Amino acid sequence: MNSPQLLGTLTAVICCVSPVAVADVFSFTGLNLAIPDGQPAGISDVETISSGISQLESVQVNLNITGNFNGDLYCYLEYNSALAVLLNRPGRTVSNSFGYDDSGFNVTLSDDAANGNIHVYRNVVTPTPGSPLTGVWQPDGRTTSPDHVLDTDPSAAPLGVFAGMSASGTWTLFIADLSPGGTSMLNSWQLIITPVPEPSVLPLAALGLGVVSVLVRRRER
Predict the structure, then answer these.
(1) In angstroms, rounded to a whole number, what is the distance separating the alpha carbons of residues 2 and 219?
(2) Average pLDDT of the chain, as a whole number
(3) What is the Cβ-side half-sphere exposure of residue 207, based on CA atoms within 13 angstroms?
(4) How many CA within 13 A on the CB side of residue 204?
(5) What CATH number corresponds to the domain at position 46?
(6) Which residue from 181, 179, 183, 189 is spatially nearest to 92, judged by alpha carbons?
(7) How far apart are CA 205 and CA 218, in angstroms?
(8) 11, 112: one domain
(9) Are residues 76 and 1 in the same domain?
(10) Are 134 and 109 in contact (CB under 8 A)?
């Protein structure tokens, strides 16, 4: 029997295992933090989490914000000196310097969301008057100053900036209301952290031993 050949076959099988990834979810509820109207200093919610994820693959954020003028808001998530811009004056364009006048957000932000970028969400849907925007959207990502940001600016700071980091540590959500005329409130937010997939060992071992058994029987004939 050619043992090196069998070992090579088993190694090849090991490399072909389907990955397994289980997300950690951290919910920060009951905050009810008023966002000062027309104040760039804004508010921060600082949360320290403990997770078994040593290398994260992706991050999603759920935001629940009530208010009456979405185009005023600027929001980012910061961790380990990396910063993802979640909202940057949604709806602000050359022809609309105020942004969208909708009433809050109850959304999930994900880099690969099919709805597209939240800065231009009215290209997809216009919320019912008095109701928040809902659904799954890509984060704004625009790093341009909120005083000058436009829909044509590149989305350079998505949630992917956190990829490869350990999940445990202090995460900071910052929100500011940059124009006077209405008060918004951060009710809650949530982090959904998915790790880089790791191999599933047990199914692999069984499959590998099966291959070895078949090859041994063939050698003995």
Answers:
(1) 9
(2) 88
(3) 15
(4) 16
(5) 2.60.120.260
(6) 179
(7) 20
(8) no
(9) no
(10) no
Write the pLDDT tens digit of every residue in 168-181: 999 999 999 999 98
Residue 191's SS3 state is strand
Residue 121 C-alpha from the chain's centroid? 17
Please give the angle made by the CA atoms of 109, 127 and 33, to the nearest 5 degrees: 60
Tell me the C-alpha to C-alpha distance, in Å, between residue 108 and each of 62, 192, 201: 4, 10, 33
Q: If pLDDT is split at 50, 70 and 90, which confidence band does 78 have?
A: very high
One domain for residues 98 and 6: no
d(CA 102, CA 117): 16
The answer on 157 and 120 residing in a single domain is yes
Pairing of strands 105-109, 39-49: unpaired
pTM given for the model: 0.82
**206, 104: one domain:** no
Q: What is the pLDDT of residues 103-156, one digit of tens each?
A: 999 999 999 999 999 999 999 999 999 999 999 999 999 999 999 999 999 999
Domain of 162?
Answer: 19-198
Better-predicted residue by pLDDT, 28 or 210: 28
